[in-house]
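Lab channel / #folding
Pinned by the channel admin:
"Please post every new chain as: sequence first, then the structure tokens as a reply. Keep commentary short and put observations after the output so the thread stays searchable."

First post following the new format, from NK:
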Amino acid sequence: MDYKNQIQEYINLEIETLKKLDIDAINEAMNLIYDTYEKEGTIYVFGNGGSSATASHYQNDFNKGISEYVEKKFRFLCLNDNIPTVMAIANDIGFEEIFRFQLKNKLKKDDIVLAISGSGNSKNVLNAVEYAKECGNKIIGMTGYNGGRLLELSDVSLNAPVMSMQVTEDIHMIYDHLIMSIFYKTMCNKEHLSK
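Reply from TO:
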């Protein structure tokens, strides 16, 4: 089989989407993340499916990747990483509560939420975001497509304006590595990670 045309189509869609990203929103998100770091607040990150893997990757890149080279550490906490806790909440209370339950009576005033949902309509993500907003915490929402309800609820919206879940998830990882790379350069005085 010759897949070259389809390969080029995917690459072209990725490039077109990258060109549409909102640089002002990325800058705003970076400032919110850095302000939270300065105040020693926790950045709660979570998502479902592929977005849960992305959320784990964010925690890794900030809690180890950058934090290895700075005295004060980032405080990312990925709510989908503790599988026994997630499964217990899902089984005993309901899957729609797996993230909100973990935030209840834990959020502090300087904490923020980084919520990831390709559709922007994942009920468990929205429940947690609505709770955080009720508590007065800021929301960075990462979405695709038209952003769904999460875009509306977000203080800062990092949307991948594309009708493809795969490209959306690619862009969400690009947001991670883009933000991490710039912080790595500005906070650690290093150009690129050596490991």
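NK: The chain has a mean pLDDT of 96.
TO: also worth noting, The longest helix spans residues 165-188.
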